[in-house]
Amino acid sequence: MTTQNTGLLHGLKVIEMSHIMAAPTCGQMLADMGADVIKVERAPAGDDTRRFGEGTDGDSAAFAMMNRNKRGLAVNTKSEEGRAALHRIIAQADVFIENYRKGAMEHFGIGWEEMHKINPRLIYCSVSGFGRTGPYAERGGFDLITQGMSGIMSITGEGPGRPPIKVGAPITDITAGILSATGILGAVVSRYETGQGQYVDSSLYEAGIMHTFWQTAIYHATGEIPEPMGSAHPLSAPYQAFPDQGHVACRGCGEPEHLAEICRSN
Length: 266
Prior knowledge:
The chain is of the alpha/beta class.
């Protein structure tokens, strides 16, 4: 972690009480744009991502990547002193980000309703598996589960009839972080006019559904359930990877003249 960074969001104070990936990605984006992001970890073990594989200085490479440009703070949430410290620093912040189970922040005395009364300008962002409302609000969520439930895995794979495959990158985690940062920035702009903070609710499940809107539109137009097509495209051809003299070549043609250009060049 570094202690100095300036940029578009210079002067914006963010408290990020997070672990694993989605919320840290949100804080990472804000920190990269110059916000003063303080990552709060629960003592004594801290963020589990610290122990995810190889790294330097005792922490994993994944932890270092997702928490760049942030400052760090460890708090014992089991003690009254620790909870009081959390309450105090959040009350003075512009933005608070958390991704714990539903009810955890209220248990610590730092839920949205309480903090909004103390700091009406606070932008409060909760990142979870399935959102803070609805039938699955009490459930935890992982990228694998939300890729499956959102339909991403049903359209990813070598072809029809083959087993569903998870996208290699943890896209629902990352996208939930990006959507959270987008919501926070929208709330920052709104605050300039209203003087009031807002509650931002983002989830991995919603992030996964966002990635299927293309196939959903096709289904509603045709009634056909989309299936995996390997690297091919449902509406454009050629638009996929091809074997090429012992290697793999990706050819993408968005318009007919593109195919003519490829044919002339080969």
